[in-house]
Design goal:
By secondary structure, the protein is of the alpha+beta class. Helices cover 48% and strands 10% of the residues. Bound molecules: protoporphyrin IX containing FE.
Amino acid sequence: MFANKLPPGPTEAFNLNANEESFALIHKLLLEYGDIVSLPSVGNKPIQIIINHPDYIKNVFVTEHRNMQKGTGFDRVKILLGNGLIVSDGEFWQRQKRIIQPMFHKNVLQKTHNIMCECNVRLLEKWKSNVDRGEPINVTKDTCSLALEIILRALFSEDYEKISSKGESPFFILIEHVERDLDLVVKFNSLRKYVKRFMQDRVESNRYPDDILSMLMLTEDKITQQKMSEKEVLDEVMTLIVAAHETTAATLHWVWYFLSKHSKALDKVHDEIDHLNEDLPSFESVQKLSFIRQIIDEALRLYPPGWLLSRQVTEQIKLGDYMLEAGSNIFISPYFVHRHPAYWERAEQFEPERFSNEKTKKINRYSYFPFSMGQRRCPGELFAIIEMQVHIAYICKHLKPNDIKDQPIALEPLINLRAQEDLYMQAQHRHSVAS
Ligand code: HEM
């Protein structure tokens, strides 16, 4: 039997959103009230529920997904990305997903793997010259540029060269302009003109290079036999650019932070790549780098870039002992679930071995979801994992990061969870390895 009452929580109103205040408040409320908390909203907006328990998470993402749509937190993303895959819902989302899904198939990723390798070769040269000059490497900026260049080249292939010179392109304002404010929205939207030009040029010259933009322009939906309109392709392209680069770069930021501080983990990484008789790992062998994968999984556990996910209830649902009315907003934070002491031993510690084959079996599958879960799970997961594995394997083969002094890192929990300050890393050449 369940009572028709609300979960416990404070009486003061507050509108949760992806920002620092909400981060601190969610932390406080979970400690005070437990794994399900209700919170009145400002004005006549619907009630807000925070959940932090694997059973509720399973309900929201899996068993009750038909009664959910994307939550209020996505309004800000909509301003930036239009009606792209991350924010759309219902039948429109289903159609877009059917058209876009093929770009994540293994045969497409195999081609993207070449791009990933080429970009990392250039990055290594840059980092080696930093080392030769005794200058620290700005890991935050350089991994951001790397991830941005990879997705832009995967999208536009040969057309990318038309708008880039000396390794930079107008899209790099996404890196330089760190504030996620209205000014960025204006600048970001002005980038649409380049994509539009590429599209018009392809139509006029009937030239469709083998890249993701051509796929998006040409693929027909299997059910409706329709192609996307120009505006729809544009929204999806802008969505992919944002979704792919910031998340991956933020994860690499933490990977380098941990590798610089944990010499045993670094030794294991070196051991793994030295056993691989390849300088640049091939598409097949990169996926076998199991310890590097554990490092990535652990970095994503401690610092999931999408730290706050939200859903809105469309039809009344039951969650544990509680009934939630249509309109209720549900907030789920992978950051706090990933550190829940009931599901994670030594939750605050960096221990990549917890993701070994043996130990992974014991992890509650609804307590770890850096790429979300269910229908709306990130389709770019394998893309991102391969990209990060290539990067870590290749750079670690040639360079060894030096110890970073223990210093607390201030977080910036906005739409993506990032560190407030750029990470600077000193490194040295690995002379034992012939290049
Ligand atoms: C470490 C890297 C990444 C992380 C942690 C990540 C995380 C996420 C999360 C948490 C969501 C779901 C949000 C929700 O449930 O509300 C998502 C959705 C999405 N991601 Fe990723 N992502 C990453 C990389 C990528 C890459 C590389 C791409 C594209 C190449 C990509 C494309 C997308 C798209 C298109 C969606 C929307 C899917 C949908 O709603 O159907 N992501 N991502």
